[in-house]
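Re: the 366-residue chain
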Amino acid sequence: MTGGVASGPREQTPAAAAVLRALGPRDPAQAARAARWLLEAAALAVVLATLLDFAAGGRSYWGPKSGEVLARGAGAFGLSVALLGASRLVTRAGTRLGSLVALGLPLGAVALTVGVNLVTRDASPGAQAFAVLPVLYAAHELRPAGALVVAAAGAACQQVTAWTMLEPAWAFGDAVYGFAIIATVTAVMISARGARDRLRGELEQRALLDATTRASQRPVLDAAMEIALSDRRAPGTALIMVDLDRFKDVNDSHGHQAGDAALRHTAAVIRANTRPGDVLARVGGDELAVLMPRCTRDAARERAESMVGQLRREPLDVGGVRVALTLSAGVAHSHPDHGDVEALYAAADRALYQAKRDGRDRVAVA
């Protein structure tokens, strides 16, 4: 008996994954919602068009042509059911809408459009316009590469419809206009969607960063702490809470612009004493925090002392006036398997206020 090892599913290569991502949806959940609406609208349009066609034909459809009429009605009913079924599947996919499905939907719509046009021998502007709808969907919901693939398919569909069923003189004009419309729509939609995505990305980035210090906001620090504390590897996680001493005096003596400059200067000094992978965040008016994953208590204390010492040695220049700045810092450490976000915050906060009670410009360790 010949034995063998059953091979599991093949993993995607990085190149294949990159290609699929380039062809796929920008936002799977949004693409699924848009596809559902379009599929349901298409099903309704098929039913209404069939009913209106029958109503317009009246009795002329019955008699010798009754079999053909019934076949057309059954075909329309089957198509509408298939469209609603596809809508149901897309709805279930939601955020899991894959690249191949997201690309296959508009390509399938293009193929269906040209097929119906050829079967019905309909080359009217209305029939050809249906090829533009999947192009619109792709240009808005897919990444540029996927949108261009669908646009090329839509243009080919329009060309086949025009040159197969129209006289050459009419076909040439329809072919040129159809290609121009599809190319223009695709270019405009890709450009507009790209600009919107860039703006959204910039706004999201701004929301995550403090405008004055360019440090992270508190939610970013909280999320990073959750991740760091879930790491069970030694030597644990450290948190340094830092407060700019007598910050109100800087504001009162030199103005709020000087206060902002002091915060920026302090953040720069702290950042210069952090490691790659550490997270600097602004957690209050003049309070900053540094999360140090996989760090010992002693290493965190040394970093904090370096921050305090460097700021003491590097006063702030405000219009030619040297303004001395000092820091108070509190260090807390969490061992693996004993991590708790609130407990680590509380310990670092207690250490910070101990440093202030001890005279400021110093480091205290919890």
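Residues 1-9 have pLDDT under 50 and may be disordered.
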